[in-house]
């Protein structure tokens, strides 16, 4: 089923600043921007990433997080100050109407004059724990499936808050972001399902992870990503 076309309620960018641990930097504190902004292959003009080893780049040019998830988090966490406005999860796009169950890997979406393609779901990291001051927040985001997703930029252009998000192509309609992420995060070891996933146009790190899982018949250790290390 083709989802309706929501509007981009908020367009957000952030500047990389020192984070909570010595030597760490982050641009997770995204703030709303007004007016049209240029979108290039590396993302939105004025947006930065604190650690280019694991954030940003062409496969993670833009992060989209559904606004409706905020109510679920407020029910779990209480009236957390970060949940008062978009940007709590470091997202660039905030909208209501699409969740991970409504969009699929490879979906091409026209926003303003830019054409974007969903490249992967988000793999949350330890910085969410410290941003929210909630133990195991990254793990909770992962287990909930409320991760959001990333876009690569197919055609550069301009976007602004209020633009509609229009699905123009869906090559992998059986593979919602929610379904694909569940294979990864639910620690699936079923060979046929892993082979089916590997037939999809996965980003390199997802492909390596699932190939290794298929070959070794064991699930990878996520503790470094979810909990961090003192030297991260």
UniProtKB/TrEMBL annotation:
Residues of the MOSC domain: 31-168
PROSITE patterns membership: MOSC (PS51340)
Family annotation (Pfam families): MOSC, YiiM_3-alpha
Gene3D superfamilies named in the record: PK beta-barrel domain-like
PANTHER family (alphabetical): PROTEIN YIIM
Protein name per UniProt: MOSC domain-containing protein
Organism per entry: Pseudomonas oryziphila
């Amino acid at each position: 089923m083709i989802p309706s076309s929501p509007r981009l309620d908020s367009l957000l960018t952030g500047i990389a600043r020192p984070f909570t641990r010595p030597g760490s930097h982050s641009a997770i504190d995204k703030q709303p921007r007004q007016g049209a902004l240029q979108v290039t292959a590396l993302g939105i003009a004025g947006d930065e990433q604190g650690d280019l080893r694991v954030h940003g780049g062409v496969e993670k040019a833009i992060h989209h997080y559904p606004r409706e998830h905020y109510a679920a988090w407020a029910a779990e966490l209480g009236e957390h100050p970060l949940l008062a406005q978009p940007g709590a999860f470091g997202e660039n796009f905030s909208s209501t109407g699409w969740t991970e169950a409504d969009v699929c890997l490879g979906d091409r979406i026209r926003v303003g004059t830019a054409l974007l393609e969903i490249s992967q779901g988000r793999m949350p990291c330890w910085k969410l724990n410290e941003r929210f001051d909630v133990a195991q927040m990254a793990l909770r985001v992962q287990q909930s499936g409320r991760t959001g997703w990333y876009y690569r930029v197919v055609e550069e252009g301009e976007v602004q808050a209020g633009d509609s998000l229009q699905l123009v192509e869906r090559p992998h309609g059986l593979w919602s972001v929610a379904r694909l992420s569940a294979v990864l995060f639910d620690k699936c070891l079923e060979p046929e399902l892993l082979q089916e996933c590997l037939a999809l146009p996965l980003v390199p790190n997802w492909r390596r992870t699932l190939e290794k899982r298929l070959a070794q018949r064991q699930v990878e250790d996520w503790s470094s990503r979810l909990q961090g290390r003192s030297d991260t």
